Amino acid sequence: MSNPLIDAVIFILIGLSVGFAIIGMIGLFLFPDIRSRMHTAFRATLISLGCLWTSVTVFALFIVLSRVGDQYIIFVLHSVVLLIIVVFANAVLYKLFRERTKTTSVCGQSDQQKIDNKEGK
């Protein structure tokens, strides 16, 4: 049996994780352009994963401090490795999407230069 305070912390963190995952999913469907979608999905997913990983760590550390067994240390290490893999994969995909969605310049001018020329700067 675990401590009610630890259980409350774990449930709050899991609730936050689910909430941010839903925010990321809604952002993918709601925003009109690809950059806004990427930004929302990337940030909300990382916050969601951070909350989930923190809840796993809190649970495992509580069990380890209760002197139940060493298998929970391995559980924490596996969750750390999984978190690193997911963060790295998100970063790679984010860079890939940014490279593929760059605005192209027309006639040697970037979009910002065109705006400056229209404003008379």
Folded structure, characterized:
By secondary structure, this protein is mainly alpha-helical. It has one domain. Helix content is 81%, strand content 0%. It has 4 helices and no strands. The protein has helices at 4-30, 34-65, 71-100, 111-119. Helix 2 runs antiparallel to helix 3 (71-100). The longest helix has 32 residues, at 34-65. The N and C termini lie far apart (69 Å).
Give keywords.
mainly alpha; 121 residues; 0% strand; 4 helices
Q: What's the short story on this structure?
A:
With 121 residues, this protein is mainly α.
Number of helices: 4
How many domains in all?
A: 1
Q: Please tell me how large the radius of gyration is.
A: 21 Å
Please bin the fraction of helical residues: over 70%
Structural class by secondary-structure content: mainly alpha
Cα shape? elongated
Distance between the termini: 69 Å
What is the N-to-C succession of helices and strands?
A: HHHH
Low-pLDDT runs of 5+ residues are none
Strand content: under 5%
Largest sheet: none
The strand count comes to: 0
Topology:
Layout: H1 4-30, H2 34-65, H3 71-100, H4 111-119
